[in-house]
Design a protein that fits this description.
This protein is 48% helix and 21% strand. The protein is built from two helices and four strands. The strands form two sheets. Strands 1-2 form a two-stranded antiparallel ribbon. Strand 1 and strand 2 form a beta hairpin.
């Protein structure tokens, strides 16, 4: 039963990292999205927060997405008086998305996803070998 529990924990980690990857992809896709009119705000970077959650049926802690929130850091400003969303001083607010940070977060989420997948593959192989031994 411990192998099954490890697979369940790893599967929850893969699901959480999958959500994180989708949010990062959305951030990157909107890295240059400005407001449509002056006074509106541009796209605000989203963040993912994880939490442990007890799976009472299995008796193990699993990882879950606690919430998808927003990054409250300041927007970037660029002087472009010809832009449709420029303010009275000619500045345009740009999203608070840094594509370098998003790329590093994506790499970290991908590695965590792959590590969890490796645990599931190893547990599956051990279960298969155990069944083969019991048959033999």
């Amino acid at each position: 039963m411990d192998l099954y529990n490890s697979m369940a924990v790893s599967a929850s980690g893969m699901k959480a990292q999958g959500t994180r990857l989708r949010v990062i992809a959305e951030n990157i896709a909107n890295a240059n999205t400005t407001a449509e009119t002056p006074g509106d705000l541009p796209y605000r970077r989203k963040t993912v927060t994880f939490q442990n959650e007890l799976d009472r049926q299995l008796g193990v802690d699993t990882v879950q997405v606690a919430k998808v929130g927003v990054d409250k850091s300041d927007f970037q400003r660029r002087y472009d008086p010809s832009h449709p969303s420029a303010d009275a001083d000619g500045y345009v607010l740009l999203p608070n998305v840094n594509t370098i940070i998003e790329s590093m977060d994506m790499r970290e989420a991908q590695r965590s996803y792959e590590a969890n997948l490796s645990v599931i593959e190893s547990a599956r192989q051990m279960l298969t070998r155990t069944i083969d031994i019991l048959r033999g």
